[in-house]
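Q: Got a minute? One more chain.
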Amino acid sequence: MLENLDVGSVSLLFIPHGIKAIAVVIGGLPALFAIALAHFATDMFLSLPIERALWSAFSGSIVMLLPLLVFNFLMGRQLLSSISLNDDYRLSMVRLVIAVALVSSMLNGLVNAVYHEGNGVSLLAFRYVLGDMLGTLLALAILMIFRQSVLRYVSRKAGIVD
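A: Always. Here it is, folded:
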């Protein structure tokens, strides 16, 4: 179906990246499994080759994991721990989400530019970074507008805060 999808149609407003960054910061390791599964299921639904679906699931999870590992290492925490909504850090959750999103979007852009190298698309990595960051900012704006109700719902469902 979409096997010959033009990589020039990279979204310049990719909201799922922002949702993934928020999920990784709040959920930690369990969120990575959900991200990998979502990447794989989406690619299979779009009838992409199995190799591409596996690559997408693996790279999509790893690029979200690395910034969180670095943050936890620098803060002296367990590497795979999530950020509790009650933690009191000098960095706010919004800044941490932006930092995780920025680093992971740069890694994502690099990985996908290398994967699509044969297509000759110029500035593909920049398109990925721009779309991911704009999507993250929009997801954060939505979260800020509906912060109390969204965080209360997510916290209750995840069992993070009573």
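A: The helical segments are 15-27, 29-45, 50-74, 93-115, 124-145, 147-158.
Q: Perfect, thanks.
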